[in-house]
Amino acid sequence: MDTLKRLQAGWGYPTALLCVYGFFSTLKPLEPFLIPYLTGPDKNLTTEQVTNEIFPVWTYSYLVILLPVFLLTDYLRYKPVIVFQCANLLVTTALLLWAEGMAAIQAMQFFYGVVTASEVAYFSYIYSVVDPQHYRKATSYCRSIQLLGYTMGSVLGQVLVSTSLMSYYNILIMTLVFTAVALATSLLLPMPQRSMFFHRRLSRAATTKPSAASTPPNTTEEEEEKDTGGSRPPETGTRECEVTPERVDASSQRSARGCLEVIRHLWRDCLQCYSRSLLCWSIWWALATCGYNQIFNYVQVLWEHVQPSQNFTIYNGGVEALSSLFGAASAYAIGFTQVNWTTWGEVALGSCSALGALALFLMTFTGSIWVCYAGYIIFKSLYMLLITIAMFQIAAELPMERYALIFGVNTFGALVCQTVLTAVVVDSRGLGLDIIPQFIIYGSYFSSIAAIFLLRGLYIQVRGCRDHAHNCPDPTQVPAQDTNTDRR
């Protein structure tokens, strides 16, 4: 028992449980084949219904739910939100399996929006139960296991579909079992005693509160309340159990003041975090993530359009697995490069965004499914490369709690842009464009991002060269002071 308690008290136990949860929650063999499943005989929906009426529900629900979930995640101390996320994932899979009709599938997309909005709890949890010296390892393990789960799911789905070992229905039954394992694992996670914002002061006071014997005799009640974060221990005697309306009102007022104080603190932190350099990386993060989410959502529709045959989905899972592995390899290689990203970052953002736009145009206008697959692998690898650089640059200049805040704000900005793009371009109540005009707009969107950052990066380089030339003296000229000295 003592060995088990020591094991649970260390950082490895919650990290291992979180890795198991991350693996099984991302193990989704049917995801690369979602469009053929929805438009096939199982659900009998049209491509236009899926594209213009069903998928936009995910974007809208994600945007509406993200902000309250972000605040509740910290207030509830992460674990309840992780369990809530997995429960919604179970509901999503069940609806995808048994629901019929467009309204039910739209409800499925709403629950999936709740799942993605709760993703912030996954990585925030580890920072509340792990010591700071283990942050890097724990984050690396959790990110790697998620990538492994997604890749294994894509490969498994590819094998099952290509060999006809299982139908789409049976693959979803298997996914339901994987999700149930993830839900059971989430229930075993230890409950954190602190959080980054709401419970930080209270936990600090609990660990530093002096005992009655060590309390200085001249300490006042106000000072004691200040030291304990505004919460005094109950007095002994009959008053310990006494609950009056005045105490309830005072407690609720302190809770409301604490919530408002946290929100004001978050707002001040936001204003302080977005310096000029971080603002540039964050703007690219929001804009590029918006475009990437749109490509990821609708690329299967494009593949179906390029090769509308019975076997057009035969390599979807393999392509998703390859694109994830290439993206991870390129992101890993960044750690071994010696580049001054402060100087060359915007040029890199502009250049790689231009290559991504070129890959999107290639996917749009090609008649070959293989070229379309290759363009998607290039685009996704470039995005994962650049988003890794952006995350590294932002995290290098911020403490962990501020990084989590900026992560949430950037994600919210990306969702606002994505909602506007979806409402105007995709939604049937907007333009309701077909898939080819959609991807032309997406390619133009990334071309605009590339032009903005590339021009700004080149301007910074030219200005830096001019400043360097202006500050460096001409070696062919003799300084006036030296000449006067020689004349003397």
Automatic annotation (TrEMBL):
This protein's UniProt keywords: Membrane, Transmembrane, Transmembrane helix, Transport
Superkingdom, natural source: Eukaryota
TM segment ranges: 12-35, 55-73, 80-98, 110-127, 147-165, 171-191, 278-295, 315-335, 347-371, 377-396, 403-426, 438-459
UniProt region (Disordered), positions on chain: 207-249
Main location as per UniProt: membrane
Membrane topology: Multi-pass membrane protein
Pfam families, per the entry: Folate_carrier
Compositionally biased intervals (Low complexity): 207-219
Compositional bias of kind Basic and acidic residues: 237-249
Compartments where located: Membrane
Molecular functions per Gene Ontology: vitamin transmembrane transporter activity
GO cellular component, one term: plasma membrane
Entry annotated with the keyword Transport: yes
Family per record: Belongs to the reduced folate carrier (RFC) transporter (TC 2.A.48) family.
Name under which the protein is recorded: Thiamine transporter 2
Organism listed in the record: Synaphobranchus kaupii (Kaup's arrowtooth eel)
Lineage of the organism: Eukaryota, Metazoa, Chordata, Craniata, Vertebrata
